[in-house]
Design a protein that fits this description.
With about 150 residues, the chain is mostly helical. It has 8 helices and 2 strands; from the N terminus they run αααββααααα. The protein has a domain at about 1-65: Multidrug-efflux Transporter Regulator, Chain: A, Domain 2. It has helices at about 5, 10-20, 20-30, 50-65, 70-80, 85-120, 130-135, 140-145, and strands spanning about 40, 45.
């Protein structure tokens, strides 16, 4: 067994080394994103470097936009001996397509916000504010709020 693997850590130490808080670590454990740690006779959980590495994997995947559910799938693929690199690539390609779609949505939002901001002089009564008119639409409640 690897020496690093034999060193055990308490929950706070693992959290600190992995750059998360204790509650996050417990949540990952509850969601079965990290392997269940053994327990000492006292009831304290015994964590190893393996747990720290798992949490760091999760954090890196989150930074790339993967959700916890998607990360769980990646972790399952990672531990399945029959998984091929092609399957992992497919997951990454799906995430890439999601990101491209989100960027397109954000570009549309940016364009709309720019148009709304440009249409507003910033002066005059709120009832004539083109931003509020656009957001509220032409409905009774919106007209009453702008009075």
């Amino acid at each position: 067994m690897d020496t690093e693997e034999q060193i055990t850590y308490k929950v706070g130490e693992v959290a600190r080394k992995a750059g998360v808080n204790k509650e996050t670590l417990r949540y990952y454990e509850k969601r079965k994103l990290i392997t269940k740690p053994d327990r000492r006779r006292s009831g304290y959980r015994i964590f190893t470097q393996h747990h720290i590495d798992q949490v760091k994997f999760i954090k890196r995947a989150q930074e790339l936009g993967f959700t916890l559910s998607e990360i769980k799938e990646l972790l399952e693929l990672r531990t399945d001996e029959n998984t091929t690199c092609s399957e992992v690539k497919t997951e990454a390609e799906e995430k890439y397509r999601d990101v491209v779609e989100k960027i397109q949505d954000l570009q549309r939002i940016k364009t709309t916000l720019t148009e709304l901001i440009d249409s507003c002089s910033g002066s005059g009564p709120k009832g004539e504010c083109p931003i509020l008119v656009a957001l509220e639409g032409d409905n009774k409640t919106g007209r009453e709020l702008r009075k």
